[in-house]
UniProtKB/TrEMBL annotation:
<dbReference type="InterPro" id="IPR006121">
    <property type="entry name" value="HMA_dom"/>
</dbReference>
<dbReference type="GO" id="GO:0046872">
    <property type="term" value="F:metal ion binding"/>
</dbReference>
<keyword id="KW-0479">Metal-binding</keyword>
<dbReference type="InterPro" id="IPR001802">
    <property type="entry name" value="MerP/CopZ"/>
</dbReference>
<dbReference type="InterPro" id="IPR036163">
    <property type="entry name" value="HMA_dom_sf"/>
</dbReference>
<dbReference type="InterPro" id="IPR017969">
    <property type="entry name" value="Heavy-metal-associated_CS"/>
</dbReference>
<protein>
    <submittedName>
        <fullName>Copper chaperone</fullName>
    </submittedName>
</protein>
<feature type="domain" description="HMA">
    <location>
        <begin position="2"/>
        <end position="68"/>
    </location>
</feature>
<dbReference type="Pfam" id="PF00403">
    <property type="entry name" value="HMA"/>
</dbReference>
Amino acid sequence: MQTATLNINGMSCSGCASTVSRVLKNINGVQSAAVNLDAASALVEFDPALTGPEAFKAAVEDAGYDVV
Ligand SMILES: [Cu+2]
């Protein structure tokens, strides 16, 4: 397993944080996703054979937030 930290713009409430968490966890290969609303970040634990940061960025942006 590897971990990656994403910095995410646009999350304004806990509903946003749970949306981001859900879309990350839906990615095949993601084991866990811990979203920190105050820090505007997400810590993702994943299998690098299956997925990676490019997929996380695409999924978060599809959900309407910006990865910076
Ligand atoms: Cu919100």
